[in-house]
Amino acid sequence: PKSSDPTRQYPSYFAYEIKSLSVGEHEVLLQHKGDLSVISFIKNAKIIVFDVDAYDIQDAHYNMTVGPVNLTTSYQNITTLMYTPETEGLYLHLGSVEGTVASASDTFTVNWYEDDELLSTWFKQPEAADDYYLSSFFQTEYDPVTPDMLYIEALKTSTYDASVRDARISTFNLPDVYDPHALNNVTEYVSTSLTYSVAKEFNFTPAHPDNDYIVMVYGRASSADSKVATVNVLVNGSSICEIPHYIKNDVENVGFYCLTFINVSDLSNVNTQIQLKSSSSGKSVEVSEVSFVAFRVDPSQEIELLCYPCLLYTSDAADDSVLV
Fold it and tell me: Which secondary structure element, helix H or strand E, spans residue 26, and what is its range?
């Protein structure tokens, strides 16, 4: 992080993988390491394992390029996923990539696409040369039963060496039995206030009482004035994550990611808000590329959630594909 002050920078990360697991116990471990010369912090860490082949849907698609792939000053394809949906419906697209550049004064850019539609853009100027940085995205799209393509492209902006690695792209169906609710809002919201204002809002009414629902929120923060943009995500008035991001320049944007479980006892409306504030009065901070998604966790599904540091997971179906 650019600042050691956790009130000025507490970046969030979202990493995932889809893989086939055999019957039996599996361990998912989240590790954390800091610089020995300073105190480092970690909070709100969550691990989730979710069976994307539940109900025998078998409609999950995934591809990955391990790399590293050296970048040039022209866009090049990093990884591509070609697939045909088994059924028409709502699909959750996910992508992630790690990038580095040999100069802290240089930048690189990563784009995620569906066919010719730009889904997400990451501009990054590193805090330290040669360090790898992770960025991810997710977004829902309604897909017909026709061939589709998701891909990641990237470039560097100067002659300094730059590369990306562990580029993942995937999608899976959210059928009606999941009772999915989703909203993509790409409109930029700008704030210059030292106090929180509501940047984006998402409401849904669950169809199944006495069930758990997963709520996921994603977006990108930036600042034309290179200030700290603090994002606060609330579900039904309770904060599930508060994330300050130091924005290094007016080009950089940073992703923010929040995930929680809620127990729905009745069919009342569920409200999710993204709030935003600036670190300096009159100086602008922005959020954009916002996606909300919520879906039901049926008791018959295999799903586990645990906070940091690890999760012991038992699969009861051979060769199921799970999202980790």
Answer: strand 24-29
What's the pLDDT tens digit per position in 189-218? 999 999 999 999 999 999 988 888 989 999
pLDDT at site 239: 93
pLDDT tens digits, 247-259: 888 888 888 999 8
Pairing of strands 162-173, 60-65: antiparallel
Report whether 174 contacts 219 (CB < 8 A): no
Share of the chain above pLDDT 70, in %: 86
- For 213, half-sphere exposure in the C-beta direction (CA atoms, 13 angstrom radius) is 31
Contact 288/219 with Cβ under 8 angstroms?
yes
Q: How far is CA 192 from CA 207, 233, 264, 282, in A?
A: 38, 18, 36, 5
The answer to whether the beta carbons of residues 262 and 271 sit under 8 Å apart is no
Tokens in use for 304? 């586990």
Which residue(s) pair with 117 in the sheet?
114
Residue 259: CB partners within 8 Å, gap ≥ 6?
Answer: 14, 46, 48, 214, 215, 216, 217, 240
Alpha carbon distance 309, 251 (integer Å): 34
| Integer Cα distance of 88 and 118 in angstroms | 21
